[in-house]
Amino acid sequence: MTSRDPGLQPERTALAWQRTAMSALATALLLLHAGLSVHATPLTAAAVLAMGVVLVAVLASRPRAACPPRLLLCAAALCTILSGLLANAGLLADA
Questions:
Q1: Rounded to whole angstroms, how far apart are CA atoms 69 and 16?
Q2: 52-82 burial, b if ≥16 CB within 10 A, otherwise e?
Q3: Is the model's pTM score more than 0.90?
Q4: Contact 69/60 with Cβ under 8 angstroms?
Q5: What's the confidence (pLDDT) of residue 43?
Q6: Cα–Cα distance between 62 and 54 in angstroms, integer?
Q7: 26 and 14 in contact (C-beta within 8 Å)?
Q8: Which residue of 20, 31, 68, 82 has the smallest Cβ count within 10 Å?
Q9: What are phi and psi of 47, to 5 degrees?
């Protein structure tokens, strides 16, 4: 029987936040490109909020984050929801 390594779970959590940051960065760049190419303010604002998700994810991936994890999770969720709403508003305005 192997003993449990207490350092593995925080490492997995940090890696998950890093993957979240990378995917949010890709989304933010795509939204920014779409917003700037069609001059859609809601899409550009959605890109800025998606960058907020990147910032929160980078802060959360630190081993000893200054903020409580629940606060970081709420901030990431709020930025994601607002970014999605703005992106939908920008896409519907073009239709």
A1: 13
A2: bbbebbbbbbeeebeeeeeebeebbeebbeb
A3: no
A4: yes
A5: 82
A6: 13
A7: no
A8: 68
A9: -65, -40
